[in-house]
Amino acid sequence: FFFEKKQYLFAGILGALSVMTKTPGILLFGAYGLVFIERMIKGKSFNIKWAWIGLIPVGLLAVFGLYQLQYNDFFAYFHTGGVVPMLYPFSVFNAAGRWVQTVWLEEILLYFFLYLTAIITLKDSKYRSLFYFPLLFFIAGIFVQHRDLSRYLLPIWPFAVIAFEQTFTSRKFRYAFYLLLPAIYLYAWNFLLGNIIPVSDWRPFL
């Protein structure tokens, strides 16, 4: 929002907060950078206010600097053992992968198809960051080797909603949504029953 309103200071601050919260936020910096490159190619000009976007990588360096102070390891994030591997494109389709362990991945193909169609739809949007950010996120996502890839790709979902706005606001879609409400309810109920953290002592959380 702030970026498209050309309020680059606020865009940089919020971008820095996003990357300090979740490292994939650094893709915002890449997306904004591509927008600036496109503007320079088309307009042959440079705006010094664009530099505020540099706060985004500064936020990431600040977090890594904190790791250095606390753990004496600047790259502690990558040494936790919980970082999902990013090996090669579409590496999720490997049942032997540590974080995959299944061949039942047909819904992943549907997500790829849905999100890529949305990105192609946004290609000509006048709000260029709405195209470049999901594009970079999708490219990064196809390298992720994890069964729960749909969760990793969730940041693209709002852009898909924008791309398919006419479909999601149509009467036909509303009819389908209302008819599927019982299924949505049963899915959520079933998920809540099974998604329980095995904690034997709840006192630290009270």
Automatic annotation (TrEMBL):
UniProt keyword Membrane, yes or no: yes
Q: Which residues cross the membrane?
A: 12-37, 49-67, 74-91, 103-122, 129-146, 175-197
Q: Which domain of life is it from?
A: Bacteria
User: Keyword set for this entry?
Assistant: Membrane, Transmembrane, Transmembrane helix
Instruction: From the Swiss-Prot or TrEMBL record, give the protein name.
Output: Glycosyltransferase RgtA/B/C/D-like domain-containing protein
Could you tell me which species this protein originates from? Candidatus Roizmanbacteria bacterium CG_4_10_14_0_2_um_filter_39_13
